Amino acid sequence: xxxxxxxxxxxxxxxxxxxxxxxxxxxxxxxxxxxxxxxxxxxxxxxxxxxxxxxxxxxxxxxxxxxxxxxxxxxxxxxxxxxxxxxxxxxxxxxxxxxxxxxxxxxxxxxxxxxxxxxxxxxxxxxxxxxxxxxxxxxxxxxxxxxxxxxxxxxxxxxxxxxxxxxxxxxxxxxxxxxxxxxxxxxxxxxxxxxxxxxxxxxxxxxxxxxxxxxx
Length: 216
Fold this sequence. Notes:
The chain is about 55% helix and about 10% strand. The protein is α+β, with helices and mostly antiparallel strands. A four-stranded mixed sheet has the order 2-1-3-4.
């Protein structure tokens, strides 16, 4: 089945999917929305949100749905543990990022605060850092209470939780959030970034990343 991923180099939800495709060794075509334009993209995905995955003649939007599809159709290596409770814990960790943190801090929310709510740059940054800290406090506690140790969020190999965490840490660094209080989060991020599947999914390694622009 031919797969085409519609995304953008800095789209963190798209980065989750890129990493999963890399981990599973799945071939795909990367198509940047900056190359086709937003009007053309909305013809593909009426939601107008990134990413979307074309599967043959059909299109699936939302990174969580895409990752579930990939897990069902390309089961090796698995992104979720076999044990149902363990899998639920992994999903809970990932969904804290996907449902509680990312929706409050994404580009369109920050843009709305600036343009429609007349928030200053400092106020928007305060907003961003507040929700990052609140979310990371919970994530760090979840990592501290894990039933088993490992280099990654939940064990000795990366999985669903790690796919969500790495882009969120990356964005936190971009906005100069204080990560000192989160040693476990930083350790997981460092372990993931040592893996080729994660490195090749980074924004600066995408074909639409502006040439001559520093990473970060």
